[in-house]
Amino acid sequence: AARRFLRLPGSAARRRRELAAGLAFASPWLVGFTVFTLWPVLQSLILSLCEYDVTHPARYIGLANYAEASRDPLFWKSLGNTVFMALWVPVTLAAGLAIALLLDTEVRGMAVWRTLFYLPAVIPTVAVAVLWVWILNPSTGLLNRCLTPLLAPLGLTPPEWLQDEHWAKPAIVLTLLWAAGGSMVIWLAGLAGIPRTLYEAAVVDGAGPWQRFRRVTLPMLTPYIFFNLIMGIIAAFQIFNQALIMTEGGPNHATRFYVLRLFDVAFRYLQMGYASAMAWILFVMVLGLTLINFVLAPRWVHYEGEARR
């Protein structure tokens, strides 16, 4: 019947009219995507092959900007700082999962606790950064005021945090751990999707809490772990607001992350060609890490549908 309908006179014209109507309805998005996303991306690729400082016409220099990145010590410093933050992604995921496990209970007032733990995720990052600048103040900050009575009997003093190049990056990690509840919603959705019959069967087999977590919870959560891992790595390579507001890349470039270095090159030094090359290097790195995760995913990510088959 479908084939006979497609052969009817006028069916081709009808399909063309439907296609035209669909494109007309989608045209605002298509035009916006082309003008504000696709064209700037292509323009940045062109500029990455040019010397361009905004005030003068672009001059083609080939791959010189990419060669400059390999010789730039701040490029490697910022990349190393960013990789350090990416290595903490599993810790932030574990913290979010631990919060979700604590909140995955049916007790009175649990909605209030879930709201409180989720609040850091909806607070603007600028406000969070300003708050933590006050908390981490070495002399009047809340954290050091709490640590001083504990460390004084041991003859120790609290670190200076943002003023110490050895503690600056761990201090920013603290801000990320504080907002670990942002992924709580995803973890709770994953925990709610685990059939309770699996836990009941595990209890019958004599499995304890740790064995149930290891043999039931974690395997069933691997799709959510996979998603959060990829999103966490992408976010770690794009960290910017915290470093700009809390430390401005210091001390001694200890928190000059990759995107902050890119921002300086582009908007402080007006080296738009070099900044475009850095942007494309970042794109290739993030794409490569994402593809590696997708290649390795079949070895450890388990889906319920696969189990049924």
Layout of helices and strands, plus pairs?
Layout: H1 2-7, H2 11-47, E1 50-51, E2 59-60, H3 64-71, H4 73-87, H5 89-103, H6 110-122, H7 125-135, H8 142-151, H9 168-178, H10 184-192, H11 196-204, H12 209-237, H13 241-246, H14 258-268, H15 272-300, H16 304-308
Antiparallel strand pairs: 1-2
Helix pairs in contact: 3-15, 4-12, 4-14, 5-10, 10-12, 12-15, 14-15
Describe the structure.
With 309 residues, the chain is mainly α. It contains 16 helices and two strands. It has helices spanning 2-7, 11-47, 64-71, 73-87, 89-103, 110-122, 125-135, 142-151, 168-178, 184-192, 196-204, 209-237, 241-246, 258-268, 272-300, 304-308, and strands at 50-51, 59-60. β1 and β2 (59-60) form a beta hairpin. α3 crosses α15 and α4 packs antiparallel against α12 (209-237).
Largest sheet, if any?
A: 2 strands, antiparallel
Strand order of the largest sheet: 1-2
- Rg, alpha carbons: 26 Å
Number of DSSP helical runs: 16
> What class would the helix/strand composition place it in?
mainly alpha
Number of strands: 2
Looking at this protein, list some descriptive labels:
mainly alpha, 2 strands, two-stranded antiparallel sheet, 309 residues
Summed up, what is this model?
The protein is an all-alpha fold and 309 residues long. It has helices at residues 2-7, 11-47, 64-71, 73-87, 89-103, 110-122, 125-135, 142-151, 168-178, 184-192, 196-204, 209-237, 241-246, 258-268, 272-300, 304-308, and strands at residues 50-51, 59-60. The protein has 16 helices and 2 strands.
